[in-house]
Backbone:
C-alpha cells in the first residue's frame, strides 16, 4: 500500500499512478500531475465541470459579492481566472450544484425556501423547474450534487433528510435510498448512478462511502476500518474511473492529511494527493490519468476516455 500521506508527483515509473484534476472548494484550481496548481479562480466554488470546449462551468458559493450564489461558464486563463461567457445568478439562499447538459442547457439547483431543480438555456431563461421534496428549515443542508441521468430523471442527494432521491421531470419520486442510521450523520453529498445501475454515495460525517444496487442493498462500502490510519474525514466528492477505481475527496482531513485518494474495488489505496497547506476539496474531476485524458463527467457522473481538447 502506498504511503497515504505521500505527496502525489509525476514519475517515470509506469506502475505509479498520476492524475491531473479540477478541484472545487474554497480554492478552485487545476492541479497538474506533479502537484502544482496551473490555474485558479479567485472565488469559492461548490461544484465544477470541465466542458468539451475547454471552458469551465463553476458553481460559485454565496458571498458578499454574490449573496445568492451563481453559476458561470468561463474560458479559463491566468488573468483573473478567465473570461466569463455565461452567468446565471441565484434567487434564493445559495446554489450548490450545476451541470451542463447534452442539449446545451444547464442544470442548476437552488437552495432556499423553495428548493428546486432548474434547467436554463444559453440565455439564462428557465425552461424546466422541478420542486424538491426536502426539508427547508436549513437551506444549506437541503441538497448537493444533483445530476441529470440518461433516462431524463434527476438524482438528488438530500443531506439533512439523509436520503438520495431520483425525481422525474414531473417531480415524482421513482426511487430513493435512505442512508444508514449508523454511523450517525450519514448526510449524502455525492450520488453517482453507475453504468451497472448501482449508485455510489458519499456519506460525509459518517465517514462512509457506499455503493447500493437498485434493490437498495449495499454491494460495496468503504470506511476507516478498511485502512491502517483514517483516510475518510467528511468524504464529499467522488468519481468512479474507467478502471473501476474510485477517487474520494476527504474534505475535512486538514492540512496534515490526504485530501484525495484513489482506491480499488479490493480497497487498496493506489494514489494519494496531499498538500501541507490549503483548504479542503469539495468536488473533484479527474482530467488526465498518467497523461491520458478522460472525458468530462457525463450525466451519470462517470468518466471515460476522451480526445484532447
Residues:
Amino acid at each position: 500500500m502506498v504511503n497515504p500521506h505521500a505527496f502525489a508527483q509525476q514519475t517515470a515509473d509506469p506502475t505509479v499512478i498520476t492524475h491531473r484534476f479540477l478541484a472545487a472548494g474554497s480554492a478552485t484550481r487545476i492541479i497538474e500531475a506533479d502537484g502544482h496548481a496551473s490555474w485558479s479562480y479567485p472565488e469559492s466554488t461548490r461544484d465544477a465541470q470541465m466542458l468539451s470546449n475547454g471552458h469551465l462551468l463553476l458553481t460559485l458559493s454565496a458571498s458578499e459579492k454574490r449573496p445568492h450564489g451563481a453559476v458561470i461558464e468561463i474560458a479559463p486563463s491566468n488573468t483573473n481566472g478567465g473570461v466569463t461567457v455565461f452567468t446565471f445568478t441565484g434567487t434564493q439562499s445559495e446554489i450548490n450544484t450545476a451541470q451542463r447538459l447534452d442539449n446545451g442547457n444547464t442544470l442548476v439547483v437552488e437552495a432556499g425556501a423553495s428548493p428546486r431543480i432548474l434547467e436554463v438555456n444559453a440565455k439564462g431563461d428557465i425552461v424546466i423547474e422541478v420542486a424538491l421534496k426536502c426539508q427547508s428549515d436549513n437551506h444549506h443542508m437541503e441538497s448537493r450534487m444533483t445530476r441529470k441521468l440518461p433516462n431524463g430523471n434527476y438524482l438528488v442527494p438530500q443531506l439533512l433528510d439523509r436520503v438520495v432521491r431520483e425525481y422525474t421531470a414531473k417531480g415524482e419520486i421513482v426511487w430513493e435510498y435512505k442512508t444508514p442510521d449508523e454511523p450517525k450523520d450519514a448526510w449524502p453529498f455525492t450520488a453517482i448512478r453507475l453504468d451497472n445501475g448501482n449508485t455510489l454515495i458519499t456519506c460525509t460525517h459518517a465517514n462512509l462511502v457506499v455503493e447500493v444496487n437498485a434493490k437498495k442493498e449495499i454491494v460495496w462500502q468503504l470506511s476507516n476500518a478498511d485502512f491502517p490510519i483514517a483516510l475518510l474525514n467528511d468524504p464529499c466528492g467522488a468519481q468512479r474511473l474507467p478502471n473501476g477505481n474510485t477517487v474520494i475527496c476527504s474534505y475535512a482531513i486538514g492540512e496534515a492529511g490526504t485530501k484525495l485518494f484513489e482506491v480499488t474495488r479490493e480497497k487498496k489505496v493506489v494514489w494519494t494527493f496531499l498538500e501541507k497547506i490549503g483548504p479542503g476539496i469539495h468536488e473533484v474531476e479527474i482530467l488526465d490519468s498518467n497523461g491520458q485524458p478522460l472525458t468530462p463527467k457525463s450525466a451519470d457522473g462517470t468518466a471515460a476516455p476522451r480526445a484532447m481538447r
Summary: Residues 1-14, 303-309 have pLDDT under 50 and may be disordered. The longest strand covers residues 281-289.
